[in-house]
Amino acid sequence: MDTKALLACLVFLGCLSDASLIAQAAEDIQAQALIRDELKVGDAAPDKYTRSDTQLSDWQQRGLKQPPAGTQWVQFGGKYVLVNRASSTIEQIEPGVN
After folding, report:
1. CB count, 10 Å around CB of 84?
2. C-beta separation of 44 from 25 below 8 A
3. What residues contact 78, with CB distance under 8 A and at least 6 apart?
């Protein structure tokens, strides 16, 4: 591999890394907005909260109602948030543990 090709690959990988950091920063900003009560029902939830690995499987023990089909309870920003997995919208916000 010549020097130009190697340099081009390194630049490309650097750009990918920056895009990942930007996406993470955007999700962190959204979580902080929820902490400050800026996010409301109907707002977009960070994409990572639509994944099944972030859902609260113990919603009953936390005093939450059963999530309707296509939704899941997640916890972020110190609150319980009911998220529509298909549309990534917040459907309900409940106080969490502090």
Report:
1. 16
2. no
3. 35, 96, 97, 98
| Per-residue pLDDT tens digits for 57-72 | 999 999 999 999 999 9
Taken in order 89, 83, 38, 76, is the CA torsion positive or negative?
Answer: negative
For residue 43 the two structure tokens come to: 């707002």
Is residue 91 helix, strand or coil? strand
Q: Is 69 helix (H, G, I), strand (E, B) or coil?
A: coil
pTM for this predicted structure: 0.65
How is the chain split into domains, by residue range?
Answer: 3-95
pLDDT at site 88:
93
CATH class of the domain defined by 3-95: alpha beta
